[in-house]
Amino acid sequence: MSERPCLVFDDRLTAYNFGQTHPMAPVRVELTMALARQLGVLDAFDVVGADACTDEQLLAVHAAGYVERVRKLSAHPTHADPSIGLGTEDNPVFAGMHEASTLIAGATVEAARRVWTGQTRRAVNIAGGLHHAMADRASGFCIYNDVAVAIAWLLDQGAQKVAYVDIDAHHGDGVQQLFYDDPRVLTISIHEGPQSLFPGTGWATEVGGEGAEGSAVNIALPPGTSDAGWLRAFHAVVPQVLREFGPDVLVTQHGCDSHMDDPLTNLMLSVDGQLASYRALRDLAEEVAGGRWVVTGGGGYAVTDVVPRTWAHLLAVVADADVDPATETPLDWRAEVQRLRGISPPFRMGDGRSAGYRAWELGFDPASWLDRQIQATRTECFPWHGIDPTL
């Protein structure tokens, strides 16, 4: 097994493009790669190209009729089909969308394959993490669910338990729904609560289907939650459940739209807080999954100020080449931001915030909305894993 992590990437992954005015601009991936390259982070990776997933892999999670309809709309992008979520404001139809989506799914499958076959312990598809897509419809900027396709592939290859942790500001509803009745897949999502953010799901009471109770874990955060509260919630739930579940592989989705500057959400994290979450997940992958860690990107719509810095940090963490948040962003990268976006880029890799938090073990405050949400998750889920929620 190589100690060098694998990055599955080529420029074709940026063809997943809903248009110039859409929030999910592919420039966020381009600027991430440019920043990571100029920081020297990519030197630590084996970088391999992406191939489209096969029809068999895609159909393991998506309905055949849906895939066929996406193919047709992809070839005739002047048409639309809102009944399957395509041709809407969130998910405009674009030429080649089937090919672009299967390429992203294939890249995540390749990351999973590299880890499962022992070629590497850690692998990344930074363009992946399209966690809202359902079996038979597009949703929330997501056409095919690359994460679910990769998890299904792992199960087909013999994985007995796969844990999925989603730290996007939006609930990881598609992945949860696709495996809701499968006790072999643990889905954990920590997100802004459904009362204030799309997709309106992810309550603590969503714990898994019959025979798979406890396989879905949802931590619904109040709007306005910042680094200290987010990290308090994460550490009060995620490590305990992962330890009891004992996965063969840890798959993680790293949407960075939880940042305070993201235009679509109401959480208040900093780059420094997000970096702390990446380090925590790296440690958990080592502890609970023998280091087998498959990593994807996700949401993130502050495409120049936030996404490139947070995901460059993510790549650095995967490579054990952590970048000090006080590091200045490279001059050439700043010039690239000016050229592509015409705005002043961030000067440093962090936001100058502390990533400290108050541990749950120090006490529960019933007057705190955040603490009530944490306790609700613990109460609903912990007993299914044999954990006492009061401790």
TrEMBL record:
Coiled coil: none annotated. InterPro entries: AcuC, HDACs, His_deacetylse_dom, His_deacetylse_dom_sf, Ureohydrolase_dom_sf. Pathway: Ketone degradation; acetoin degradation. Pfam families: Hist_deacetyl. Residues 22-317 form the Histone deacetylase domain. Gene3D superfamilies: Histone deacetylase domain. The keyword Disulfide bond does not apply. Keywords: Acetoin catabolism. The keyword Acyltransferase does not apply. PANTHER family: HISTONE DEACETYLASE HDAC1, HISTONE DEACETYLASE HDAC1-RELATED. Belongs to the histone deacetylase family. This is Acetoin utilization protein AcuC.
